[in-house]
């Protein structure tokens, strides 16, 4: 069990190492591409082409098509509906309203008054006085600090 764990870690380490080694070539190549200057090439002059004028094409006229007339459709008279006598509206009997039985009124319950609880009296404590701390003095940097610079690699180094 432990051996398989170590081998997977080593495999991951090998993959990361190989990919980091391959990535430096692209950076160097990109720097070389940026540093190189290309010679200016003259723009080629092309001869002008002659203008060709084409005549407007005339479309042939199509013959007019005569449509046959529609056949005559006779109109039908409106049919008359039979007349029905009006029926009287039905009269519904009135139903008596239901009455609820009368309940006697109950007296409201009287609750006894409860005395308010008295809280014990706590003496007032004096506020604590914190000692005043002196303001910290921030150190200042000297003005003449030598900042190291990183030398850029030469173009002939890989």
Q: Which sheet architecture does the biggest sheet show?
A: none
C-alpha Rg (nearest Å): 55 Å
What is the share of helical residues? 10-25%
* Residue share in β-strands: under 5%
Q: pLDDT under 50 segments (min length 5)? A: none
Q: Judging from the principal axes of the Cα atoms, what is the shape?
A: flat
Q: Using DSSP, what is the number of strands?
A: 0
The structure class reads mainly alpha
List the total number of helices. 1
Compute the separation of the termini in Å.
43 Å
* Mean of residue pLDDT values: 82
Provide the succession of SSEs. Answer: H
Q: Brief description of this entry?
A:
With about 160 residues, the protein is mainly α. It has one helix at about 1-35. It starts with a helix and ends in a 123-residue tail after the last helix.
Features:
158 residues; mainly alpha; 1 helix; flat; Beta-casein; PELPK1_2
Describe this entry's structure for a reader.
The protein has 158 residues and is an all-alpha fold. 22% of the residues lie in helices and 0% in strands. The protein has 1 helix and no strands. The chain has one helix at residues 2-35. The two termini are 43 Å apart. The mean pLDDT is 82.
Give the helix/strand layout.
Elements: H1 2-35
InterPro entries: PELPK1_2
Organism: Heracleum sosnowskyi
Signal peptide: 1-24
């Amino acid at each position: 069990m432990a051996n398989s764990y170590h081998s997977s870690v080593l495999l991951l380490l090998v993959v990361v190492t190989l990919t980091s080694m391959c990535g430096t070539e692209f950076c160097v190549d990109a720097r070389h591409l940026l540093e190189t200057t290309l010679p200016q090439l003259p723009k080629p002059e092309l001869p002008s082409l002659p203008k060709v004028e084409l005549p407007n094409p005339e479309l042939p006229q199509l013959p007019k098509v005569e449509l046959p007339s529609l056949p005559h459709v006779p109109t039908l008279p409106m049919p008359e509906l039979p007349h029905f006598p009006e029926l009287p509206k039905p009269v519904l009997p009135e139903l008596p309203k239901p009455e609820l039985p009368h309940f006697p009124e109950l007296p409201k319950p009287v609750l006894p008054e409860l005395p308010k609880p008295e809280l014990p009296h706590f003496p007032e404590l004096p506020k604590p006085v914190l000692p005043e701390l002196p303001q910290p003095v921030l150190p200042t940097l000297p003005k003449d600090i030598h900042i190291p610079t990183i030398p850029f690699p030469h173009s002939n180094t890989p």
